[in-house]
């Protein structure tokens, strides 16, 4: 085997890891890429050139050196602003949203949110794909994959929604199969991927948001209704043996609380979600907007109201109890909160952190950072991560039929 051929094969094997580094912002220059990959400068240069030829990144061949810097400045690497996209969607109790998402978790375009969800999953998924196709037509972008986030535990690898929460889909709805079929009918020749919405939010935060750099990241969030959680271990979602791990919403935090649809009482799912906050504050959900939006507006616009403040403290205490139990079991090195929980953290960060520290063994021995999520539409971005994964694994194979240049 010649040296040239060996270099080419080594370079091809580095394409996926190299793209992942640029995708997550970990390789802003070719010198950093060289160091992270552990290859020669020549190989790193060839890898960067190949990724540029695929239309995925841009290489700045004339970078400006920092004032007073020594040596030749390295070429800068950036994601191609006009590169391919994936179709991403999120379904929730109050509707769905479709978007086009580029590398780096950048949302390129979104369709107006739909405010109703049919009991027929095929009908909803067809509407999602129709909205996505409209965006592709408007923008003229290449689509290289598709992912959808749903409010349900999703069995792996089948992609079935085992127990959709608060939407009237049947248990075991074949979401991935329906999605792939609808994409094919619309002329998108890529398989559809499906995942739980909170799992995907955690994946997005780990790659592009407040969870970057964490080894063991715990994400807990309120959706439009209910509470979910997810764990990322060494960069990979921990989904259990079949995709059902970490149903944190069914931790009991108030034994004397209301009955839960799971059969228990006082679960985090019903004690610390948007409807619980509105109820505790003496408000009823209005006909316009989701409970999540209404709860956020109430907390933002009426924080000084004693009833709102008491409700916030009550939910913070229940949330803190739940997080303390999770800290004892999982020992994460970071916690990220999303949905209404992000707003509760902002309203009284010291109270929440004090409850977690007081009620958890690891919290007493060393504070666990509790941070707000930094991504808007994190589940959408996470759905896009599912679709981008085949490209990140092997860009040359995934884009062979669409290669530019």
TrEMBL record:
<comment type="similarity">
    <text>Belongs to the ROK (NagC/XylR) family.</text>
</comment>
<dbReference type="Pfam" id="PF00480">
    <property type="entry name" value="ROK"/>
</dbReference>
<dbReference type="InterPro" id="IPR036388">
    <property type="entry name" value="WH-like_DNA-bd_sf"/>
</dbReference>
<dbReference type="InterPro" id="IPR043129">
    <property type="entry name" value="ATPase_NBD"/>
</dbReference>
<dbReference type="InterPro" id="IPR000600">
    <property type="entry name" value="ROK"/>
</dbReference>
<protein>
    <submittedName>
        <fullName>ROK family protein</fullName>
    </submittedName>
</protein>
